[in-house]
Amino acid sequence: MKRIVVGVSGASGMPYARNLLGQLAVREGVEVHLIVSRGALRVYAREGGDPAELAAHADVVYDPDDLGAAPASGSFPTAGMVVVPASATTVGKLAAGIADNLLLRAAYVHLKERRPLVVVPREAPLPEVTLEALLKLARAGAVVLPASPGFYHRPETIEDLLGFVSQRILDHLGLEGDGARWGG
């Protein structure tokens, strides 16, 4: 069983989180552990979604304020973590080593344990301070994967665009996907 931690922070782009969780939920041998920040709950509602949709695709859902939960410990083995979408605040705090909620602590643990951590920033434009934080995270071992879908697979729907980004995330978590690939 591969345990994947999914952290959802308060940036716009909740459909990316929903799509990824939907793709993870149908995979054999994957156990999804979900942490949704307080800010993400507000943004999800603003973007017209019901946050319960996210929880429906997870095996375990954590209180974002519970720093004693399993993902806060390096002794809790996982196959990786993704933060999707990653707000600039989350990126900045993580780059500074601040872990004042469970999402940040779990991401910090993935860095310190050298486990896969995929950070999916969605904000634009990116000011220098955020670019520096993203570079710092990349140097610390995180994969910085902007929510920037490609078009060579000729998407016809928004779900196709979301699925492109989810496919790239799955690739970096070591999970085979059946999404868009460059055909050469």
Which ranges are low-confidence, i.e. pLDDT below 50, for 5 or more consecutive residues? none
Return the string of H and E elements: EHEHHEEHHEHEH
As for the number of domains, it is 1
Q: Could you state the CATH homologous superfamily?
A: Flavin prenyltransferase-like
**How many β-strand stretches?**
6
Q: Supply the helix-strand structural class.
A: alpha/beta
CATH architecture classification: 3-Layer(aba) Sandwich
CATH topology category name? Rossmann fold
Q: What amount of the residues lies in strands?
A: 15-25%
What quaternary form is this?
Answer: single chain
Radius of gyration: 15 Å
Strand order of the largest sheet: 3-2-1-4-5-6
Secondary structure tally, helices = 7
Shape: globular
N/C terminus separation: 34 Å
InterPro entries: Flavin_trans-like, Flavoprotein, UbiX-like
Keywords: Flavoprotein, FMN, Lyase, Prenyltransferase, Transferase
GO molecular function, one term: flavin prenyltransferase activity
Family: Belongs to the UbiX/PAD1 family.
Task: Compile the SSE list and pairings.
Elements: E1 2-8, H1 14-25, E2 30-36, H2 38-46, H3 52-55, E3 60-62, E4 80-86, H4 88-95, H5 102-112, E5 117-121, H6 128-140, E6 143-144, H7 158-172
Parallel strand pairs: 1-2, 1-4, 2-3, 4-5, 5-6
Helix pairs in contact: 1-7, 4-6
Binding site for FMN: 10-12, 37, 87-90, 122
EC number: 2.5.1.129
Catalytic activity: dimethylallyl phosphate + FMNH2 = prenylated FMNH2 + phosphate
Descriptive account of the structure:
The protein is of the alpha/beta class and 184 residues long. The protein has a single domain (2-172), classed as Rossmann fold (3-Layer(aba) Sandwich). It is 39% helix and 17% strand. It contains seven helices and six strands; from the N terminus they run E-H-E-H-H-E-E-H-H-E-H-E-H. It has a six-stranded parallel sheet, sandwiched between helices. Strand 5, helix 6 (128-140) and strand 6 (143-144) form a beta-alpha-beta unit. Helix 1 packs across helix 7. The radius of gyration is 15 Å and the shape is globular. The model has no long low-confidence stretch (mean pLDDT 95).
